[in-house]
Amino acid sequence: MKKIYILLLMTIISLSGWAQQEIMISQYMFNGLVLNPAYAGSHAYWSGSALYRKQWVQFDGAPTTQTVAIDGPIANRRLGVGLTFSNDQIGITRQQEVGLNFAAKVSTGSGRLAMGIRLAGAFYSANFNDLVVFDENDPTYNANLTSQFIPKVGAGMYYYERKWFVGLSMPTIFALDDNILPDVTINDRFFKTHTYLNAGYVFEPSSILAVKPSVLVKYQGEAPVQADFNCNLLFFKKFWLGAGYRTGDAVIVMAEWNITNMFRLGYAYDLTTTDISTYSQGSHEVMLGVDFGKDVNLKVRSPRYF
Known about the structure:
By secondary structure, the chain is mainly β. The chain has helices at 2-19, 298-301, and strands spanning 46-54, 64-74, 79-90, 93-108, 111-126, 145-160, 164-175, 195-201, 203-206, 209-219, 226-235, 239-246, 250-258, 263-272, 283-292.
């Protein structure tokens, strides 16, 4: 019975590659560009990050994700540009994506409003030989998919001031994915639109402490709404400590160390709250951030909150 249960769970994880098509990370508050193209160039300096996520450790076929992102301001900070790369593997599926991100900004009172667009290309693969198929005559599973190229377009909005922000984004509004499913139509694409609503605020009760609650709401019409609720504390403008809860999935603890004005190191651990916790020791996520440029020393007077 235990083997049957594990097989059923493995089938669910394999099929989840068809539903969870956008990457999921816990340290999203330190990697805004992977969620929203309008985030590009929102700082006075250039910023980059590399992240590795291993989900559901010791669970065969569990998701693994790697991301690299870099962005910065141009044209006297009126425009922002960014580049993202991700490698996401879930069960039998793998997706490698490169995205070009562009943002235009206007000043509105004490803040700035950015409108962004993402032009991306993804290579999608699926190895159906490792999948349990109950209908062997289904044409969907007759042959493996190998490096199918998928052009994508996404967009977002991002408003930010020094102490708070709010963003709305759809990383994939449209994908030219006719070569993935044989019966795909213009009204029923394989890649679905995921909508993200993201907001946060910073309180500064003292000169050595800042408190940043934030929320990320994720909506996709064919899945339950999911939300991440987080609160991070910044001590001495150097050390972030935080905790969060992802509805229906996990409790999260995280930390980030601003080693210098240039380098940041972050870690997050997800404690799974679903039945998968019986077979997994949770999820690990490691991030290295690099901030650079002539204005990077502004972080001393005005630390990077988001």
